[in-house]
Design brief:
The protein is an alpha+beta fold. Helices cover about 35% and strands about 20% of the residues. The protein has two domains: about 160 residues, no CATH class; about 100 residues, Arc Repressor Mutant, subunit A. Helix 2 packs across helix 5, helix 2 crosses helix 7 and helix 7 crosses helix 9. The longest helix has 28 residues. The N and C termini lie far apart (about 75 Å).
């Protein structure tokens, strides 16, 4: 039996976490590292009977130790956050208003007399910025969660089986996950696709244009996203269709295979051309003894090729 699996099959985060530029919740909590850490807290969610079934589902209490949380903070294939980095991110989350510290009563009580984090001390946290929704039947008779307040409660659905699939099966990082979640947010409309350019994604996420492009290629390669290239006269735009359900992985691959390949081939040619581009030093003759200084510099030993410092 595996311990510390996610305690729920899914949850929601507010859509507006990605809005507000430099003042967005996403930026305030430490960007992709903070977002990943918040999601990892759901491995330590304590189920409580606090009211109705809906209230039980949306009321999140987390019982953790910093030491236990550390092993789930991997943000690339080798690096994990330090105890101090974890506490700093949790403090940012509380300052941003998405969690509340209950135990201990103050953050400095997690630090010993030598300035080290008490990694085995119990920490109790509460999620405080959860979308408020109600259930409505759609045209197919299926239950759909709708926001109570359309300004505050639009949400991004988080399927924890997808999180495990992205991290464990595909060995991707929190950067790929963050781009995927942004596209999930932007594709919540009726057409289920996100029309956004790389510069806008850069502004929202804080990644470079090159990083975002590489991530889009990785997401297409792993069939988590299908990017459709649209041409209108000389203008090219992109429409990103993210995989919405873990249960539909195979059908998503089948339906979008051709478009993913087209998108990847578009950059495959460019990447090949870039790698074949000649270096500015390709024509340098390494057999030449020295550069043409016009005259031998003071202290130059022609036999050894070294410059001797003459005092």
């Amino acid at each position: 039996m595996k311990f510390n699996n996610f305690a729920l099959s899914s949850t929601k985060i507010k859509s507006n976490w990605f809005e507000g530029g430099k003042k967005s919740i996403y930026k305030q909590i430490g960007e992709e590292e903070g977002l990943n850490l918040y999601l990892q807290l759901f491995r330590f969610r304590l189920h409580q009977m606090v009211g109705t079934q809906k209230e039980n589902y949306t009321h999140h209490i987390f019982r953790i130790t910093i030491g236990e949380l550390t092993k789930f903070t991997k943000i690339n294939l080798t690096k994990k956050l330090t105890h101090k980095q974890i506490v700093d991110l949790l403090k940012k989350m509380e300052k941003a208003g998405i969690i509340k510290l209950h135990t201990p009563s103050r953050w400095n009580q997690l630090v010993d007399d030598n300035g080290k984090i008490k990694s085995d001390k119990l920490v109790v946290l509460e999620a405080t910025d959860v979308p408020n929704t109600y259930v409505e039947k759609n045209e197919k008779g299926q239950d759909v969660d709708k926001p109570v307040n359309e300004d505050e409660d639009w949400y991004v659905p988080i399927n924890f089986r997808m999180i495990e699939y992205i991290y464990n099966d595909l060995s991707l990082t929190s950067k790929e996950l963050t781009v995927y979640l942004l596209l999930m947010k932007l594709s919540n409309g009726g057409e289920h696709k996100a029309t956004i350019n790389i510069n806008t994604m850069k502004d929202r996420l804080g990644f470079s244009n090159e990083t975002i492009l590489e991530i889009l290629k990785v997401l297409n390669k792993n069939r988590l996203v299908a990017t459709y290239v649209k041409r209108k006269k000389k203008k090219i735009s992109f429409e990103h269709v993210p995989l919405k359900s873990f249960n539909h992985i195979d059908s998503f691959k089948r339906v979008n295979e051709e478009q993913c390949i087209k998108f990847l081939n578009r950059y495959k040619k460019k990447d090949k051309a870039k790698s074949e581009k000649s270096s500015p030093f390709d024509n340098v003759d390494e057999a030449v003894e020295s550069d043409d200084w016009g005259s031998i510099p003071n202290g130059y030993n022609k036999e050894t090729g070294e410059i001797e410092i003459i005092l």
